[in-house]
Amino acid sequence: MIFLSAAGLNLKAENLIQNISARTTQSLNGKWNYIIDPYETGYYDYRYNAFDKSQNPGNGAYYLDKKPKNASELIEYSFNTTSTLMVPGDWNSQDDKLLYYEGAIWYRRLFDYKKTDANNRVFVHFGAINYESDIYLNGKKLGKHIGGFTPFNYEITGLLKETENSLVVKVDNKRKREGVPTLNTDWWNYGGITRDVTLLEVAPSFIEDYLVQLKKNSPNEITGFVQLNGNNKSQTVTVQIPELKIKVNATADSAGKAVFSIVNKKIVRWSTENPKLYQVEISCDNDKVTDKIGFRNIETRGTDILLNGKSIFLRGICIHEENALRGGRAYSESDAEMLLNSAKELNCNYVRLAHYPHSENMLRKADEMGILVWEEDPVYWTIQWENPSTFENAKQQLTDVITRDKNRACVIIWSMANETPVSDARNEFLRKLAAHARSLDNTRLISAALEVHGSKNPREKIVEDYFADYVDIVNFNEYVGWYDGTPDKCDQIEWNIKYNKPVMISEFGAGALQGFHGDINARFTEEYQEYLYQKNLAMISKIPQLRGLSPWILYDFRSPKRVLPVIQDGWNRKGLIGENGTKKKAFFVLLDFYKQKEKEYLNK
Ligand code: GCU
Fold it and tell me: The pTM is what?
């Protein structure tokens, strides 16, 4: 997706820099001044021409962050005197008047920066901004980014001043028909600079990216690459894993890429029981990056999923990137810990991070805690399959999440989509997306949340989907007992699933208001949800290929689609834990089921 500035600058973000937290950094988190701008007055002139496309934008352009030189100069905005929003964070939960706000908001952050070495380069990195963002530094446009859940960075070396740098970001979370996701979703469209903003300083030629993982299906061959960025590309890079006494040198080619592989028989493979992470040190002439990486094998064989060659059952739960207790987007290490600890309390060894890439904190925490992960491209429901820019957008978001998380042992599944209606255009879209994912990473499994359809026989449920031929695991969502009848219907259902592949249920569930009790047939009571779980677990356990599930969902979560007074009030109530953190009865049904499953697979 190419964006050109007034100066004809290609405004696409540079290549993603791997592992920001291991670099020399200065955080720009904290209070940022902001201007709500529903009419985008600070972006377009009254003829609706973008100021940043004009040669002389004048005093209306907010990104210039101007102050009146004297009392008679007309400037109708001021960041200095406006209120502030916390970054990282969504704006919706920070100010009641912004709870439902969808539109543009301008953020401004002033900062000083003194380089440690005059020759060094400086980049600004954003963990994520929802949804569309235009980024400016000291009045110059750095770029435009689309997509609310993946990181991006820009080089600012040439624009940096020692003091009073003005970083201005126009954020717009308006939903778009051609967007990914598109207009219609069942989650809160949190807007804002939702993840960390970081300045990083690197040497003129530095380690931009790297991959250090076990070769597909090899228990002891570590392979990968190191990508250098800078003028001095043809260097020797070194990859060291001190604990394994591994030290391998490789020479980068003229494009700055060095590939390597090494066999080591002492590798303790990462697993859910023993999430072993190794200190990995990657260095070149003037740069060194250290990371914590686990090595594990994941594959399917027939209807089995094998982790390090051993058949595993994925005891999962779905999670939205939200801290229900705070009622806002989750982003921090402690948010990740809170969510994953709740999953651990459910005896989970797996989580489905729905429906978009979650923060890097979540993946690094799952790596440490030994929890397997499904990551998802936000291709949700009915996006514009025929629109080439929609495909490029989905492809870019997938590229960025794979680039960011390819060294995380916990990530085992890349999911292409959720509940997308079968059509030729959709099939082709998903086929191409899966091929792209495999071209970037052939070591992980591909899946998607497919749909179920009925047959003339009311008892029969058929899982048959063109895209199922392109995935490694057949996942589907089913809501027998909630959107489809009542829980007793489960007893009659026969599943017709003709794939000789592992099968998983990526969603089932029911709404229940925590603390609302009543008859098992009374909707929204804890007893109804509990009964539905009992019935569903019994029903799906009859599926011979079943190798895992991730019920919908760990915590109640905000959704503007859920308007039932007293019961929903803007919350989807399918959580096993209420927004107040209290577990519902169904939580314990699933916990018992997972205890059994764990025992069952111990000796497999
Ligand atoms: C769908 C969808 C979820 C949604 C859930 C529900 O299957 O994938 O995003 O929230 O059902 O209806 O609660």
Answer: 0.97
